[in-house]
Design brief:
By secondary structure, this protein is α/β, with parallel strands linked by helices. The protein has 2 domains: 172 residues, Rossmann fold; 161 residues, Glycogen Phosphorylase B (Rossmann fold). It has 14 helices and 12 strands. 45% of the residues are buried. One of its GO terms (biological process) is carbohydrate derivative biosynthetic process.
């Protein structure tokens, strides 16, 4: 059997965020061994010096891998801004070496990044996308945006992936419903919209003790804790700050609702992780979120609409039957469309096509 080699380049698997989660998830599939995937890190959390040193070290390792191991395909995971600059540099090096490049676009703000860039940078972005052997978009909406940027690029839709889990346990009538927010704490993810909605929910008569909210993530942790105190929410809201992947899994298994009222998104791994456990998801109809859930398996509201978020939360926290129904439908959708085993086989097909 002919050996197959793929070279993956991304942020460190220990880095915070969805890309690292995605890479860790794919690493558990046969794709990783069937293609003898070698992973190179070109970014990690830390100071500017740490990030620069990581990229230089990763770039050298990348060139060495091209020269001495000659992969069949290079798979570059990119977001926007600095991430794209790093991956575009490596993409052109691989092109000079005549090795097919799969450029996997994860960035929620990629179209904004393109629009805000000067003309010369826009040309580089278009050229990089166009000359890649394949450009992976997370959903149809993102594929459309990339097609507007680079009409000649070969764009393929492959969603993020997750491994289906056992459905969470629903609380008894005497137990509080547990809602969770996972992600970077700040305005883009809608954290403070959520806290305003939670305060209004309680002020409108939703009884204390009937629900609790846990907020986990990096970002503006202190501001979130101060806001919880200012809004007198300490009895029902707990701000944990950043927690590791194992702790995230444990947290989700104690919850019944995930709330992510983002103003801008790609395709959040937090939503997929929640769906994979049968949680009911309340989110906003922005970015790639509608590619994951619709009214049949979740609740979507307009971004920034506090009243709509209050109404959605009141419904899913009160209606035990509908909350359970939506969570079960979300888990079935994961099994059908986002199972990591299914998605990994799509990458296998892409690799076989581009290496010809």
């Amino acid at each position: 059997m002919t050996r197959q080699r793929a070279l993956w380049v991304s942020t460190s698997m220990a880095t915070r965020g969805g890309v690292a989660t995605f890479v860790r998830t794919i690493r558990q599939t046969r794709l990783w061994t069937d293609w003898e995937i070698h992973h190179i890190v070109t970014h990690r959390d830390g100071s500017i010096a740490t990030r620069l040193r990581t990229f230089i070290t990763g770039a050298v390792a990348f060139v060495m891998a091209l020269v001495f191991h000659r992969p069949d395909v290079v798979h570059l995971h990119t977001a926007s801004y600095g991430s794209f600059v790093r991956k575009a540099t490596l993409a052109w090096i691989a092109r000079v070496a005549r090795i097919p490049v799969v450029l996997h676009v994860h960035g929620a703000e990629f179209h904004s990044f393109y629009c805000r860039s000067p003309g010369s940078v826009q040309w580089i972005i278009r050229s990089t996308l166009t000359h890649a052997s394949a450009v992976v978009a997370l959903g149809a909406g993102w594929a459309g945006r990339l097609e507007l940027i680079a009409p000649q690029a070969r764009i393929i839709v492959v969603p993020n992936a997750v491994r289906p889990r056992v459905a969470v346990t629903q609380p008894t009538a005497a137990e509080p419903v547990h809602a969770v927010f996972l992600g970077e704490i700040g305005d883009r993810k809608g954290t403070f919209t959520l806290l305003d909605a939670w305060a209004k929910l309680l002020a409108d008569g939703f009884g204390q003790g009937r629900a609790r909210l846990t907020i986990a993530g990096d970002g503006e942790v202190r501001r979130a804790r101060d806001t919880v105190t200012e809004l007198a929410l300490n009895d029902s809201v707990n701000v944990l700050g950043w927690i590791g992947s194992d702790a995230v899994a444990d947290l989700l298994e104690t919850a019944q609702v995930l709330v992510l009222p983002s103003r801008n998104e790609g395709q959040p791994m937090a939503i997929l992780e929640a769906m994979a456990r049968g949680l009911c998801v309340v989110a906003c109809n922005v970015g790639g979120i509608p590619d994951l859930i619709d009214d049949s398996c979740g609740v979507l509201v307009a971004a920034g609409d506090v009243d709509a978020l209050v109404s959605a939360l009141r419904h899913v926290l009160r209606d035990h039957e509908d909350r359970s129904r939506l969570g079960s439908a979300a888990l079935r959708r994961v099994e059908a469309d986002f199972d990591v085993e299914v998605v990994s086989r799509r990458f296998d097909t892409i690799y076989r096509q581009v290496r010809r």
